[in-house]
Amino acid sequence: MFKEDRKITHKSIDNIYENIAVTKGQFGQVTTDSNATRIQSSELTGSDSVKSRSSKAVVVCLVLLCVLLLTAVIVLCVIFTQERQQLISNNENLTNEREQLILKNTNLTNEREQLKWEKNDLQRCLGKVDGWIYYQYHFYYMSTEMKSWTESRKYCTERGADLIIINNRQEQELVKNISGGAYVWIGLTNIDVDGSWKWVDGSTLTSWFLLSGKPSYSHYENCALSCTSWWTAYSCNKALKWICERSILQIALS
Question: Which domain of life is it from (predicted)?
Fold first, then answer.
């Protein structure tokens, strides 16, 4: 009887241990499942955080990219506008230059026509001055007859000229050449104001183109003549050859 009770007791104890083991195992499993859930929840929370940070980074990158693109577009627009304005300005400048060139061409054409007209007119005028010698925009006439200084000047003025005015040594050399060294009346006198020598155009004598010294003259010698390379005072009533001088302008206006 006692043995049987002991067997029952052992079985009861074994059952209790088994129940405890089962219960322990079950609670352990539950405990393990709870920990796993917490771990999985923690893992899910960390993953969401990473995804959130990644999303923010993507958004920031997109915003920066948009800003860069917008900046690039603005810069390109500014450059394009500046280039366009520059091209417009260049085009206006070229247009103005073209208009100026057209105007200059028109002016040159007009000047050419004017020169052609003046040339033809000069040729026409030259046809009227037979016996005259051209030199430095002036025409000179050497007489073949002899007259007094006053009559010689009258001959010149009747033809739109006057007695020669010698302005430099080159012109004096011309007188020497066309006169052949003969005495000739020149447009220098002191008839109006004795002692003050003036040219026929009213200008006062300032220089004597002579080889040496000033010409000698008396109270009655009020007109000047030229011989070779010097001048001298001479009586205005004496008959000499003379030289007339006439400018191209005088011919063109006549």
Answer: Eukaryota
